[in-house]
Design brief:
Helix 5 crosses helix 7 and helix 9 runs parallel beside helix 20. A hairpin with a 2-residue loop joins strand 4 and strand 5. By secondary structure, this protein is mainly alpha-helical. Helices cover 58% and strands 4% of the residues. The N and C termini lie far apart (125 Å).
């Protein structure tokens, strides 16, 4: 046998030709260094800015004028770095991924790191639900609780999971990790979005631009620790499985022929047999059941999306739609029966009332520089996304043909306006569920196909070179006020929460707790022991009537013999004025009137709030003649 001749070995023991090769593998190339530098610079700016964010003295513009210049600079550098790495997304997709995660953390991690209390009143409310579940170890779906709190016992899936996490982490309550929910849900959503977008395009530039736009356009604030945020992640997961593994045989037609596809489009995934699709249904049925156990609206949106997909031959899976509908109906008629029947009884009034169902909340017009800026930013963001997506639909029809399921999924929630207002939030939920498809087509308007040729393609690339950075900068500028412009309503110091809890602890079981709104931390503390009346959460004309005689108005609404306490806090003032429930200055008028009235006795008063106890006329001291 012929023996191979060993390669010459240098004194170091390494073949001479292998040494440069090893060196080239161990050292990052110029492109990697160039991609990493903006990321490192942005991280340094962000870390420098973090302790300088003035969250303890939030004023009219929320955190917008409390973020230091270095914070805004870090976001600008991240955007520039993303645009640079986007050019090489096809060969190095990890860099746009790294920038997407970095932007998510940069935008949403500051409250989790800085705040010494739970951000957002509804997150505090969910903490109270989890605490009760931990204390009692079970739910009571038939027990009537004031303020619609019975629904949390009827859809307890999400709260059961969080209670398990509290036990697993060995922490006292969900408040210890609750502010990290936006970051955690965002990180978990990112790969699901990538999977969905990769189903319809082979162009990594389009994928990551779509993800980037989705993150900046997701300003509706449903990513806090909530059943909606959790079930939305599961909804996207089910959608990803369906578009990748539920393609019917012989339904793709020419959509696997590269000559008729958009240069950026991906071929339709391979078809699956009836048996394979049946197995997939069994696999995702637990996810669908978890969605139904966690949230009321998301199962409806899922069924609407599956129905829209059935309009195409590719995804006409009636069996999956039926299974999803049956799971939803089974839950609604058992655990959720009470609220389901109540909702059905109200459809007669709300069905078809498009104008009322599509309005944002029940309050009046936003009041103050911050809330007004938020409203303007929201509208401009919606219009910009709609214009971009519409442009792509008109100009890239071959991409639309292959990505039709995404377009249908974006349009599927719109008919919900004809059904119900969902407590004044249907507008935001329709936007949220339509966002994945809208963000994809908005990105398609900004990222022209790399393989396209001709004068039109050259013009598209030149236009995109300017339009893409300007659009991403504009979306970032719109996200910041939309997400942080009303932060005064979302952050309250621990002392304010302590005052609220002392007020509740003073009250006997069954007492009535009055507050202007439920949008303040601790509003639902020990909620199963008390009834609550948030007396400004009604039509504005009724509030104006109330302001003429606040003490008398509230006294007339308190049942005879019922102990009652009024809790007024600075966070409530910012909420009712900012959301338009009360005109500017009226909260202080209300506060002063209640303090003067012989019907109410001051129990505690400080800069963090005012607590009063109701004294019926028979026990109140007679007024001086």
């Amino acid at each position: 046998m012929q023996q191979s001749v060993p390669a010459p070995v240098a004194e170091s023991g390494v073949p001479p030709l292998a040494e440069p090769a090893r060196r080239s593998r161990s050292l990052p190339g110029p492109q990697s260094v160039f991609s990493a530098l903006p990321l490192l610079a942005a991280a340094a700016l962000w870390v420098y800015a973090l302790p300088r964010i003035g969250f303890r003295d939030i004023a009219e513009y929320g955190l917008l004028d409390r973020f230091p210049l270095a914070f805004y600079a870090s976001l600008a550098v991240l955007t520039c770095g993303f645009l640079v790495t986007l050019r090489r997304a096809g060969t190095a997709p990890r860099w746009p991924a790294a920038y997407s995660v970095a932007m998510l953390v940069a935008l949403k991690a500051p409250p989790a790191i800085l705040y010494d209390s739970v951000r957002y009143a509804w997150a505090s409310k969910h903490d109270a639900v989890i605490s009760r579940l931990l204390a009692e170890g079970t739910v009571h779906p038939r027990r009537e609780l004031s303020g619609g709190m019975s629904a949390y016992d009827q859809w307890p899936g999400f709260f059961s999971l969080d209670a398990a996490l509290v036990r697993a982490f060995g922490v006292e309550s969900a408040a210890s990790f609750i502010n990290w929910a936006p970051v955690a849900l965002g990180v978990l959503t990112l790969p699901v979005l990538v999977l969905i977008y990769r189903t319809f395009t082979d162009d990594w530039r389009l994928v990551w631009t779509g993800v980037w736009i989705f993150q900046l356009a997701n300003w509706v604030g449903q990513d806090y620790l909530s059943p909606q945020g959790f079930s939305y992640l599961l909804y996207l997961t089910v959608f990803a499985v369906v578009v990748r593994h539920f393609v019917r045989p012989g339904s793709a037609g020419r959509l696997r022929d590269r000559t008729v596809l958009d240069p950026a489009a991906a071929a339709v995934p391979p078809p699956t047999t009836l048996r394979q699709r049946a197995v997939c249904v069994l696999i995702i049925a637990p996810l669908i059941a978890t969605i139904n156990a966690s949230h009321q609206l998301t199962p409806v949106m899922l069924c609407a999306t599956l129905f829209a997909l059935c309009l195409t031959r590719r995804y006409r899976n009636i069996g999956l739609l039926v299974v999803s509908g049956l799971i939803m109906l089974a839950w609604d008629l058992t655990m959720g029966r009470v609220l389901f029947l109540e909702t059905m009884s109200t459809l007669k009034e709300s069905a078809g009332d498009l104008l009322s169902n599509s309005r944002a909340g029940y309050a009046g017009e936003p009041t103050g520089p911050g809330p007004e800026l938020v409203g303007t930013a929201n509208i401009l963001m919606v219009l910009a996304l709609a214009a971009l997506a519409g442009t792509a639909v008109l100009l890239r029809r071959r991409l639309v043909r292959s990505a039709l399921p995404l377009l249908l999924a974006a349009a599927a929630p719109v008919p919900m306006f004809a059904v119900n207002d969902y407590g004044g939030e249907m507008l935001f939920r329709v936007y949220l569920f339509g966002l994945p498809g809208t963000a994809f087509f908005a990105a398609a308007a900004l990222v022209p196909a790399a393989g396209a040729v001709g004068r039109g393609a050259v013009l598209a690339r030149r236009t995109a070179a300017v339009a893409l950075p300007l659009t991403l900068a504009a979306l970032l500028a719109g996200f910041l006020p939309s997400y942080y412009g009303k932060e005064g309503m979302h952050y309250a110091p621990p002392a304010e929460l302590a005052l609220t809890r002392r007020a509740y602890d003073r009250a006997p079981d069954g007492a009535l707790i009055l507050a202007t709104t439920g949008s303040f931390p601790g509003a639902y503390y020990r909620y199963d022991h008390y009834e609550r009346w948030f007396f400004t959460e009604q039509e504005v004309p009724e509030n104006l009537k109330m302001l003429k005689d606040p003490a008398g108005y509230l006294a007339r609404g308190i049942p005879e013999g019922r102990p009652a306490f009024v809790v007024l806090t600075p966070t409530q003032e910012k909420a009712v004025i900012g959301e338009g429930y009360l005109p500017p200055g009226s909260f202080e008028t209300l506060r002063a009137d209640l303090k003067r009235s012989p019907l109410f006795r001051v129990v505690e008063e400080s800069e963090h709030g005012l607590v009063l106890e109701y004294r019926p006329p028979s026990t109140a001291p007679a007024s001086a003649s």
